[in-house]
Structures are given as C-alpha cells and as structure tokens.
Amino acid sequence: xxxxxxxxxxxxxxxxxxxxxxxxxxxxxxxxxxxxxxxxxxxxxxxxxxxxxxxxxxxxxxxxxxxxxxxxxxxxxxxxxxxxxxxxxxxxxxxxxxxxxxxxxxxxxxxxxxxxxxxxxxxxxxxxxxxxxxxxxxxxxxxxxxxxxxxxxxxxxxxxxxxxxxxxxxxxxxxxxxxxxxxxxxxxxxxxxxxxxxxxxxxxxxxxxxxxxxxxxxxxxxxxxxxxxxxxxxxxxxxxxxxxxxxxxxxxxxxxxxxxxxxxxxxxxxxxx
Amino acid sequence: xxxxxxxxxxxxxxxxxxxxxxxxxxxxxxxxxxxxxxxxxxxxxxxxxxxxxxxxxxxxxxxxxxxxxxxxxxxxxxxxxxxxxxxxxxxxxxxxxxxxxxxxxxxxxxxxxxxxxxxxxxxxxxxxxxxxxxxxxxxxxxxxxxxxxxxxxxxxxxxxxxxxxxxxxxxxxxxxxxxxxxxxxxxxxxxxxxxxxxxxxxxxxxxxxxxxxxxxxxxxxxxxxxxxxxxxxxxxxxxxxxxxxxxxxxxxxxxxxxxxxxxxxxxxxxxxx
Lengths: 273, 273
Prior knowledge:
CATH topology of the largest domain in chain A: Rossmann fold
Oligomer: homodimer
CATH class of the largest domain in chain A: Alpha Beta
Number of strands of chain A: 10
Distance between the termini of chain A: 26 Å
Order of helices and strands of chain A: EHEHEHEHEHHEHHEHEHEHEH
Number of domains of chain A: 2
Radius of gyration of chain A: 18 Å
Shape of chain A: globular
C-alpha cells in the first residue's frame, strides 16, 4: 500500500481529460495535477524547449512526492517521454502509444488522420508507433496550430472554433481517412464539434481511458496502489491564472475544482529533473 | 426529396443530447427544436398533464410544417407516445424503446438500474420494454426528482449535483446492478459526474445515437429525406427565457445557438394535436 499521490501534467487544461478517466478508474487514489498555463501553448515551440519544460515539471512533481507521473500532453510525450523515463526514479507514462494502438485497431481502410500540434507532428512519433502496430497503415498528419488557444480562450464553442475545425478536417476528409486520432489532450474537450464536422462514418480516437488503464496496471504491477476502500482526493497547481483554471475545469470536466494553487515558473526551472 | 424540417421537443435543454446525435447522423436535414422551459420540470407532474403538454407541442410543431417529430423527453415518451402516434399525421419517435433494448443487451448479470423522473418511473414503461427484450432482466428503478432542476440551474456541476447523484446511486450500487439506464435526456449532460460516481464497472446506457439512427431509417423508409448534398440548419424555440436557453445550449452541446425564438404557452395550448 502506497499513500503517495499520482502526478499528472499538461500545458493547460487538456490533461484534465486524462485525469477524469483516472478518477473513474482509480477513485481511491490521490492526484496532483499541474497545468503550465503561463507557457501555454506548447505546440508551436521547438521540441528541445518542450523537453526542457517537461523535465522541469516532472522533476517538480517528483519532489512533491508523487509515485508515478503521467505526461498528459501529447507534445510533451512526443518531445520527452524517453528522457523523462530515463531521468525520473518513478514510472512515467505518456499518451501517444495507447492512442496509436487504438487507431491501428480501429481503421478499416487503413487510412488514419492525425490532428496534433506542430511539435507532435514534427516529432513523427505517431507514424512510428502506428507503423509499429501495423506497418500497412497510412497516416495523414495535419498540424492544428490554432486549436489549443481557441479551446483555452473565452469562446471555446463559438464560430471561430467551428471554422478552425472545418479547415483542419477538409484535407483529412479529402484523403478518405476513416479514423482520426485526436493527438492532443485538449481536442476531446470539443468532441461534440469534432463529431458533427466529421460525421458518423469517421471514428475519433483518443486514449484517455486506455492511459488510465495503463496507470492502474502499472500501480498493480509495482505494488504501489493505495487502499481500495478509501476515497481519493485531487489537488490542482497552475503556473497560470488560478481563476481561469478553475472555470475551465468546472466547464469541461464537471469537477468542483476548489482551491487552485499557483506555482512560479522559476520554481519549476529550479526543479528540472 | 422533402425539404421540411424535423421537429424535436423536450421540457428544456435535455433533448439537445438527442439533437446533437441527429446533427451528427443527418447533417443535411433541417431541425426545429422546442424546449418547454416555462413548464419545466415535467417529471413531478401527473402523467395526464404531461400527455396534454406533449400533444400541444407536437400539434404546434406539426403546424410549423415538420415532417417527423422526436419526443426527446423520456417523461413525454412515457406519458404520451401512443397518443402522439395516433393523433399526428407525421411519424413520431420516442426515446424509451431504443434505450430499453440497449440496456437488455448491455447487462451481464441481468440487473439493470433505472434513473428517471417520477413520472417515467410511475409509468412502468421501462420495465415493460426491457421485459419485452429479455423477461429475465430485473429492473431497479430510482426516481430522481432533484436532478433536472439542478442541471438546468446556475451551478450544474457543483457539490449539490454531485451529492444528489451519490444519493441516487447508493441504492443502485447496493442492488448490485451492472448497467444503469439514464432514463431522462437531461442526465447525459452530466455524464462525467455519473461516470465518476458509478465507476468503471457499471455501463451507463442512453439512447440518443440509437434514436438518431431510428430517425434516419424512418426518413429513408418513408422516402422523405432532404438532399444529401446540402448543409442543414437548426432553429430554436422556447417557452422559457431565450438567453438562458442559449447559454445552456452553448455550454452543454458546444453549439453556436444564434437566435432563440420565444413561444407563448398560450400558443401551444391553442395548437393541441
């Protein structure tokens, strides 16, 4: 039995889609969530810079005493997962591999679209992982630079977001993909819009529930689960505006968020793993 | 080819969960949605009164020239579906039968919980429909009088809603059900809360996508589909506050709602089918 919390991080509120699935699967565990709102979005940054941010945050969470870290951010996973796993003493899980496997399983015509940030597309990680699951699958990637700021903005469900989604969807529809990977943890937050734009014949894949299952299996394998009879709690940290984070969390995840603690970027920089 | 719109109605915003699935399945059709906000909630009312309301609204929609009516409200379906079908000249679909079939298919231990309004529980329609699909399934019904007003209220994702869901879930968990029917179109609007309270081992069933499929099949069978190459539109009517409806719709369904027209209850009363 291990009473330490699980650490989950993202550039902003997108990782809450992963936290939600973790709360469904592991209601008896405690969670510490860190959103790096001050440096959002990660997507347009060079991979080396995102790698540095990820190592800082994971190092900070490790000093907070977490027993496992989930990189609930596709850009950070693409840029830094092997480095995080090599550097930290606790297990680190990312969000790309379960999604790549799910996409390879879901496609019928073996044409898979990828919506992701510029950084994730540039990394080529999805092509590699989907290819490892089925080398015959063709991946059509589209970088979506505008979407994360729109989703974290004032009018996430307005006409501008719908127009941005249509623009991104057009080349994927033209390519005849039957499956689209939502390769950023922010995108499931606008799933109804995505469903309406892509229609019934396209399968949307995202991995939050599979990631949660992987967390549960890892805890069990390592023997570091908490008491299954207790009720877990969650704690929120952000480098950005706590009020903005609270309203995002409540709106998107239907989670009474409570107190959100602010962390200085300088504290993260000092904690680099 | 038939350019008339499809009518969808509910006591409030719950039926938007059905409208969303219709927009995914039938993007080329036009829709007229009517929410009876002035008389919400329906659940605590006698079945005869709900039946009268449903006949008024369906009659009003028929005069607006719709080609099919969806009673996107479980209480109205429970109280009035046969009367609506007998009275209207256009096809009328409800939301209970697809859900009952789905629940009978989903359960492994043949113990199914039902969350619904008092009116829907009192009608006994779910027991009858689930029994018709599998007479060996035991149904455990729980009336949830507080939930619709909380979901349509100012703080739908706050502690009060979480507490109300826990209270409703307790007897269902104690009864050992492995499947729970969300027997009110409002309940999917708080699905993340329901998922966290019930956990991974309970299957939550609601029928919006199956209802949308039934709409599509009915249009095809009757030969009253619109041109598949066009882009459909939607129009919103409410007997309640248009601004409140607009903010609910945007929040829950990520739909830019635009203009919401107000309809007087007296106009509905005059239109009774």
